[in-house]
Design goal:
alpha/beta; 10 strands
């Protein structure tokens, strides 16, 4: 298994500084936020993403995926930079309801298949809490008609755990569509006090040992099924100020589970 880290928290670092940080921590690669304001931006992606990949490569780090839009220029940039996956979300927020939203999103995914084929780049759809594709069965229902060489699943442990899913059940549901594992952790906390008539909850993102999904169970399952894909540690913590402290510790913990 290879390990990447989502570099969203380190927006202000230079490409060289970022590459060195990631390499020093022991990651094999990164998921890069190909968004405005980062070390490479969508408007110049075809030129800048390959340059960024070259800089990372000088430190033994590769770009394993990007979080970005699905404009054709992003596909072209990924092809030139050797990036295999574009990660996206799937909002299910149409006023007509969930099934209508899903049908509309499938039409959008249909439109991406020719770009996936043309550029040899996969699109990975991630589950996420809220009015999006949330649990693993919803994710499977969305992508099950697609060849994962085009459209596949990015399974996120934190968001799966927030639904109360057992990791082995969830991974079994999505296994044949799985192209990337996001290994992060969360649990629910109250947003308001007990005096409120309208109870509201929010997720608290934390380390693997503290959340609602068992990292040992996930790694055991992946090892049992001989998983050969990548694992991304998204470096997402509600205590954002601790990201530089927690991220390398989290990597060390996960590597200890892999053995």
């Amino acid at each position: 298994m290879r390990f990447s880290v989502f570099t969203k928290p380190w927006k202000t670092l230079t490409a060289t500084e970022l590459a060195k940080k990631v390499a020093d921590w022991g990651f094999d690669g990164v998921e890069f936020p190909l968004r405005d304001g980062y070390q490479a931006e969508p408007k110049n992606a075809v030129e800048d993403l390959p340059k960024l990949a070259k800089t990372f490569g000088e430190y033994g780090v590769s770009i394993m995926s990007v979080a970005s839009s699905t404009d054709e220029a992003v596909f072209e940039a990924c092809q030139k930079a050797g990036v295999p996956i574009i990660r996206i979300m799937a909002p299910m927020d149409k006023p007509e309801g969930y099934l209508y939203s899903e049908a509309q999103f499938k039409k959008y995914l249909d439109s991406l298949v020719p770009l996936c084929e043309k550029y040899g780049v996969q699109v990975g759809v991630q589950n996420h809490y809220g009015r999006q594709v949330f649990n693993t069965m919803q994710l499977r229902h969305l992508v099950e008609d697609y060849d994962p060489k085009h459209i596949g699943a990015v399974w996120d442990a934190a968001h799966s755990g927030l639904t109360g899913e057992e990791p082995d059940h969830a991974l079994d549901i999505i296994w044949d569509k799985l192209i990337l594992v996001n290994l992060k952790s969360a649990y629910w906390v109250r947003k308001n006090g007990p005096e409120s008539a309208n109870v509201l909850w929010k997720p608290y993102f934390t380390t693997g040992v503290q959340g609602m999904t068992s990292y040992p169970d996930i790694i055991d399952y992946l090892k049992k099924r001989c998983y050969t894909g990548d694992i991304c540690l998204p470096a997402e913590y509600t205590a954002e100020e601790l990201v530089d402290e927690l991220t390398p510790k989290e990597l060390a913990y996960v590597k200890s589970l892999v053995g």
